[in-house]
Design goal:
- The protein is mainly alpha-helical.
- Helix content is about 40%, strand content about 5%.
- It is built from nine helices and four strands.
- It has a two-stranded antiparallel sheet. A two-stranded antiparallel ribbon has the order 3-4.
- Helix 6 crosses helix 9 and helix 7 crosses helix 9.
């Protein structure tokens, strides 16, 4: 039996998401390895294991556990947070596990326009027919983005983000990448840099483990920073740095909204 924390790639019947790090949680048994009936508390604890503050983990997880809806809740005053975050919800109505606890399956993270978005580093867009599966050519492009062959820096990530946007503008006539997603993707890069790197660069070997094998880079030497939890301010500061490096990407032609 594989112990919790040990890496084991997904089996034939296991469900996975379009997010490599969430998949790594399942591959390490930090959440159910089969990717089914994942509860909010399990996902919160997994995110917290990376060294993210409980505030960040709860904000990230709470939105995902809202029920999927085409419309926001009707009364803003009664449900202000749900009204703001309703479009992040991916659960089916009344979706629960056998014990009656709200749960979700990892493949539900592929629901377009909620958490999943166009211009992924490792997946293609929804309109191209498969926004779920890891694409080997995109992973290799990510690994080759390192300017020194050893680390991927903020500047490297920024160049790749601009390149991916140009690629998808050419390949996807239905591309939807408004300025809000520019901000979101800068935050994703920032969080990855802070958790797995020094805030500016990440070892290529760490990136390969995370994005190619969907594995925490423990055997490469990564450890959660002791006595350190990344909070909202730390993410926002780095997010702004990354956003400036990428530059403005909110050309009106990029959005169908």
């Amino acid at each position: 039996m594989v112990e919790k924390g040990e890496y084991q790639p997904a089996g034939m019947n296991d469900l996975r998401s379009p997010c490599p790090i969430v998949n790594a949680f399942a591959n390490h048994g930090l959440i159910p390895r089969n990717g089914r009936d994942v509860k909010a508390d399990e996902l919160n604890k997994a995110v917290h294991e990376l060294g993210l503050s409980s505030t960040i983990s709860k904000v990230l997880v709470w939105g995902a556990f809202l029920e999927r809806s085409d419309d926001p809740p009707p009364n803003f005053l009664l449900h202000p947070l749900a009204h703001i975050h309703w479009h992040f919800g991916i659960r089916d109505a009344n979706q629960k596990d056998a014990t009656g606890m709200p749960s979700l399956n990892l493949d539900q993270l592929s629901r377009h326009g909620a958490i999943e978005h166009d211009v992924s580093m490792t997946r293609r867009d929804f309109a191209q027919g498969d926004n779920h599966s890891l694409q080997a050519d995109l992973v290799e492009q990510l690994l080759r983005s390192s300017s020194d062959g050893s680390n991927i820096t903020t500047s490297d990530f920024a160049r790749l983000r601009r390149k991916r946007l140009m690629q998808q503008k050419d390949d996807n006539p239905e591309l939807n990448f408004p300025s809000l997603l520019h901000f979101v993707t800068a935050g994703q890069i920032a969080a990855t840099q802070k958790v797995f790197g020094d805030g500016d660069k990440i070892l290529v070997s760490f990136v390969e483990a995370l994005f190619k094998e969907e594995r925490l880079p423990i055997k490469e030497g990564w450890q959660r920073k002791q006595g350190w939890l990344m909070g909202v301010i730390g993410v926002l500061v780095q997010q702004m740095r990354v956003g400036v490096a990428i530059g403005r990407t909110d050309d009106k032609k990029q959005s169908t909204a």
